[in-house]
Amino acid sequence: MRGLTTAASIWMTATIGILIGVGFYFPAAVTTALTLSALTLLRWLEKKMRSEHEAQLHLRQLRNGALNEPEILELVRRHGFSATGLSAHGTDEGRYLDFKGVLTTKDSANTHRLIETLANDERFVEFALVPLGD
Question: Tens digits of per-residue pLDDT, 19-75?
């Protein structure tokens, strides 16, 4: 459901713009106030209810001796993550093997443990773990 609030905000902005364009300033002001109030309340509720943390993962390994997909999945699972959308592709004329995917965990502390593991494993030439959302 990522992006639903953004899409709704775009539609509301268009609606408010139309109201202003036709000269309905008071309804536009009321709609703006209601929209901002609803978005603020929903963001606060989402933060209170959110129980999962997501991060975009990018791993780069030398092709020779690289971990395969099941080994990557096991590595992230041992650190308390589940992975979705994992993809692999060769880069730099096949010299490197890159894995990309989205990781999900209930405990944000798992991120720090995974970073430590990746940073201390010489098989990984580069890695990135970028939080998604707020």
Answer: 999 999 999 999 999 999 998 888 888 777 767 888 899 999 988 888 888 999 999
CA-to-CA distance for 111 and 113, rounded, in angstroms?
Answer: 5
Strand partners, 98: 60, 89
What is the DSSP-derived secondary structure letter of residue 55?
E
The one-character DSSP state at 2 is T
Q: In what order do the strands lie in the sheet with 53-62?
A: 82-91, 96-105, 53-62, 124-132
H-type helices in 1-134, by residue range?
A: 4-21, 25-49, 69-78, 109-119
Residue type, 37: S
- Is-above-0.70 flag for pTM? no
pLDDT digits (tens, 9 = 90+) for 65-87: 888 889 999 999 999 999 988 88
Q: CATH number of 53-132: 3.30.70.260, 1.25.40.10, 3.40.50.720, 1.10.3720.10? A: 3.30.70.260
Domain boundaries, the chain: 4-49, 53-132
